[in-house]
Amino acid sequence: MRYFLLVWSALLRSRTRTLLTLLSVTAAFLLFGLLDSVRVAFDSGGSVVGAHRLIVASRLSITQLLPYSLLRQIEATPGVKRATSATWFGGTYQDQPNGFPILAVGTGYFDMYPEYALSSEQLAAFDTDRSGAIAGQALADRFGWKIGDTIPLQATIFPNSDGSNAWALTLRGTFTAKDGRHGGEENQLLFHWHYFDEANRYIKGQVGWYIAWLDDPTGAIEVARTIDALSMNSDRETRSQNEQAFNQSFARQFADIGLIVTSIMGAVFFTLLLLTGNTMAQVVRERIPELATLKAIGFSNRTILALVMVESVLLIVLGGMLGMGLASAVVPILSAAVPTIGGGGGGMINLSGIPGATWTMGLALMLAISLVVGLPPALRAMRLKIVDALAGR
Amino acid sequence: MRFGRIARNLSATVLLCTGLGLWVTLPWYGALVAAATLGLWLFLTRTGRLALAATGVGIVSLPQRWGASSVVVVGIACVVGVLVAMLAMGEGFKATLNGTGSDDTAILLRGGSQVETNSIITRDQLPLIINLPGIAQDGGDRALASPELSQVVSLPGTDGTDASVQMRGVGEEAWAVRPHIRLVEGRKFEPGLREIVVGRGLFGQHRGVEVGKPLRLGNEEWSVVGVFASGDAHDSEMWTDTQTLASAYRRPFYQSVIVRLDGRDGLERLKKALADDPRLRLDALTTSDYYTRQSSGLTAAIGVLGTVIGVIMAVGAVFGALNAMYAAVAIRAREIATLRAIGFRGVPVVVAVMLETMLLALLGGLLGGLVTWVVFNGHGVSTMSDFSQVMFEFKVSPELLWTGLKWALGIGLIGGLYPALRAARLPITTALRAV
């Protein structure tokens, strides 16, 4: 801390250069913050509560429906506390080209998702209204829906029993995601499966997938096997997976996000290494007489090494934090502007800030880069021969 | 003095912004004209020749500053590489879906359903449909119409993860409706038997998909009897007989009917007939329109994403280039001051530094474009469209390479301008005295 002023004045020696280098680092880490949050959101999608949930879907494909009669059998399976169903209702609202997930859900759906905050009065109002609906807070805000509003939908898969595509639901409540990282899940609209079953023209007694709540997540594999055995050799075989595996297998098919992010960031950080490495080498080259003077007045070799290293770390960590900070400010805005990609498990990209994993990774990268970049010039500074350096040789 | 400098920098920035705006919209021949004008000016006017001489001095000393110069080149190459790769991905997806379908075939879907998987056409509607006007007929008056059913199935991929694949049940006329699809191995499926032909794109991508081998899908056993090639999105599908597929997975309806249109006004007549028949609430559009519409969303998304990533990277590269060029000007301060002392005025000095930066940027742009082209052109990937996988290839087109080069030169322009202005304003006496 004694030498902080020394490092600081070294950074301010050429303000333009420091500023420009800092901003390059900022740009690199802004990009890293944005891309890596998307990667993390795609890869995880899981939460601690999510481990209790088993998703039972068709083995053949995610678009094949399952018979409703399976519900009782799943509920009776040892290890399953309760179960309910959800069905993808493809529909659009007001000619929105980018739709949002609309699900027809079975009784007790909200018991399955304790991470959603919904007042008990609103839940009761929803339960008593056949054509009632619950929307995520973010979705309600986006379209300015208030409780009691009628929400007209255009069905794309299931026409009404009268053959028209118009469906009308009444908003009875809104839920918020208790964990901010899962804010993307607030983009769903949920309504009663029983109403859907009665009012649609083609599909009777069928659901998209089941959600089973497990007493003990560690026994998930055993329970999954028992449930899948129920429908073995029938024309609707099932496959049970925990929620995370289900979401991942869906997301992976859009694109190998991990690979894309890694390639881009590899290119970016390679350039950054070159750029800051060049800057740090230049910094030390220009300051040789000064460093020699410091040594002459008694600074030890190790102190000189530390001074240059600290300068490099300070420059990159400062720029990096600035970039990550900027990214965490931008992510919520972007994620509101780009609607979520609808998936079987609800909101797929849950972004309302930079996830912890990205922060950790970012910090590790900052330190690694600043060490790699700072070490060669720092060693050079340490090995300076006072006489030669002062003589300008 | 200080006020004057700020004013000059400000006006340079305004000029730069308008210049960049013009540059972005410039077509390739416009750039050619600009380059030719610059060349003429350099060789024919006195100031131009002076600028050329000053540029020569700078370029000769480039190897001495290879560290800083390579930062500019590699930084810009990186931006161009990532940008072109992202756009090539979007372009490839668009090309695959836009190349699917044709203007002389139409797809009929349930009104409002938009995509095949959402649509339902009941069996009693089919006889009504095939007798509609506007549908072409083969030699003996059978309508060229193929009732189709799509079933998404999960296939284990070679990497162990499951992929959703479109299994298409087609009618007997399907091969006549889409004559461009040809068999490259084995034979066609027999109606009534559990037999499938697979698209070339799927072949080799999934475990257990081999000609002559059984394939278990759900609780049904199928056998693969052939491979077809279409050169479009159908390459990612498996085909079988509609009736067989419907009975295997208990789906007693169709999802779409593909028809070959009879003449240019075929679609018009078909649409009119559909509107007149209250039993048929169907949408009809050409298959080419249908597939083009499906690609637009994702292509636009990739374009926006690529541009946003490109802009952030470009901003970083601009700072890097500015840094390197300021350093270059600082190192060459005495040299530049000498030039100015012996009579080189402002304009040649500014042009010299700018040209040097642009040269580095050009190198970077070419490098980035070349690497992307070598690595990614034709690289096959897949994504999800309408609940099933579509395989496509990256397409690094000349237009994209030109876009990349434009970005590179744009970055060079910004990165060179301010250091150039500084070079032109170096106080000669102090610069000459500096060691």
Question: How is this structure best summarized?
Answer:
The complex is a heterodimer of chains A (393) and B (435). Chain A has 393 residues and is α+β, with helices and mostly antiparallel strands.
Describe the structure.
Chain A is an alpha+beta fold and 393 residues long. Chain A is 51% helix and 18% strand. In chain A, the strands form three sheets. In chain A, strands 1, 3, 4, 5, 6, 7, 8, 9, 10, 12 and 13 form an eleven-stranded mixed sheet that branches. The radius of gyration of chain A is 29 Å and the shape is elongated. Mean pLDDT of chain A is 85; it is low at 339-348. By secondary structure, chain B is of the alpha+beta class. In chain B, a hairpin with a 2-residue loop joins strand 11 and strand 12. Chain B is elongated and about 95 Å long.
- From the alpha carbons, calculate the radius of gyration of chain A and give it in angstroms: 29 Å
Q: For the residues shown, what is the average pLDDT of chain B?
A: 87
Helix content of chain B: 40-55%
The two chains with the largest interface, and their residue counts, are:
A-B, 54 and 54 residues
Radius of gyration of chain B: 31 Å
Number of helices of chain B: 13
Estimated structural class of chain B:
alpha+beta
Task: Provide a count of the helices of chain A.
Answer: 14
Tell me the strand percentage band of chain B.
Answer: 15-25%
Largest sheet of chain B: 10 strands, mixed
State which percent range the strand residues of chain A make up. Answer: 15-25%
The overall strand count of chain A is 15
Return the string of H and E elements of chain B. Answer: HHHHEHEEHEEEEEHEHEHHHEEHH
Would you identify the regions of chain A where 5 or more consecutive residues have pLDDT less than 50?
339-348
Kindly state the percentage of residues in helix of chain A. 40-55%
The beta-strand count of chain B equals 12
Q: What is the CA-CA span between the terminal residues of chain B?
A: 26 Å
Mean pLDDT of chain A: 85
Low-confidence stretches of chain B: none
